[in-house]
Design goal:
The chain is an alpha+beta fold and 270 residues long. 36% of the residues lie in helices and 21% in strands. The longest helix has 17 residues.
């Protein structure tokens, strides 16, 4: 899921280490060897449907995610980035947007409509900007106004859209944001501002279709990540492995269903 061209040698090294450790523990043989025995997916698609077909093994622990105040190992969050009027409209002291004038939509760059980090996290953040009721809680209205969704197809493309002014705001997986800081053009990054961090959720899970292999795969992944050379581990931002199961991801589906559909959302071309 983080197979950026700039870190592809490290990604290949990780998967080779997984294959080698799986062979040592007899996992590939036990799974039949025909289909992939483990892969990584986004937590939201897993919670929305894949959970009936595959089983969670666990997730990586990522150094970049440790910046969050609510961080726990095996969790991650998104950084909300903005440019231009959307950055100016965000009140740092209150942690809220000022409403925009008129009906001009807030242009939101999203990597995928089923992404926890790029879509669900952004919608939840914007929901929190809604008007407060007498108790101080926000209602169902997503503020600061109508939203125009620009489907970017990738976090790095969302960053570029915000930096160019083609989009106003985006939520970026913090691991992708860390990769961007290391590899993307500094002048482009200088045109965007991190205005918020979203609450932490379980990080991208490694999954398998082979229930009988889950326990051994947890050993396999822990050994592969722990044995990864320092250069590759630093490139990927990995610091360890955390076992998880399906129940850790179930709340993502419930929260997402509470956020959609919304009549003020409209799709736009990038």
């Amino acid at each position: 899921m983080y197979d950026w061209p700039e870190v592809r040698p490290a990604t290949h090294a990780l998967w080779q280490a997984i294959v080698d450790a799986a062979g040592d523990h007899g996992v590939a043989h036990a799974s039949g060897g025909a289909a992939p025995f483990v892969w990584q997916t986004c937590g939201l698609p897993f919670a929305l449907g894949l959970s009936g077909a595959v089983h969670v093994v666990g997730t990586g622990a990522y150094r970049a995610a440790a910046e969050a105040s609510d961080h726990q190992p095996g969790c991650y969050h998104s950084v909300v980035i903005a440019q231009g009027r959307s950055a100016d409209a965000f009140d740092d002291e209150r942690g809220r947007f000022a409403p925009f004038a008129g009906d001009q939509p807030l242009r939101c760059a999203v990597n995928s409509a089923h992404s926890q980090s790029g879509f669900a996290a952004l919608l939840a953040f914007l929901r929190a900007q809604g008007p407060e009721d007498a108790s101080g809680s926000t209602g169902d209205v997503i503020a600061p106004g109508p939203l125009g969704l620009i489907h970017s197809g990738a976090h790095r493309r969302s960053i570029a859209l915000v930096a160019s002014g083609a989009a106003d705001i985006a939520a970026i997986d913090v691991v992708s944001w860390s990769l961007a800081q290391a590899h993307l053009d500094r002048r482009m990054l200088g045109r965007v501002k991190v205005i918020a961090r979203t609450p932490s959720t379980p990080a991208l899970p490694f999954v398998t279709p082979h229930l009988q292999a889950v326990t051994r795969l947890r050993t396999v992944l822990a050994e592969a990540i722990d044995g990864l050379g320092a250069e590759h581990a630093i490139a990927l931002g990995l610091s360890g492995f955390v076992p998880r199961d399906a129940s850790d991801y179930a709340p993502l589906a419930q929260r997402f269903e509470e956020l959609r559909p919304h009549p003020r959302l409209r799709a736009e071309d990038p």
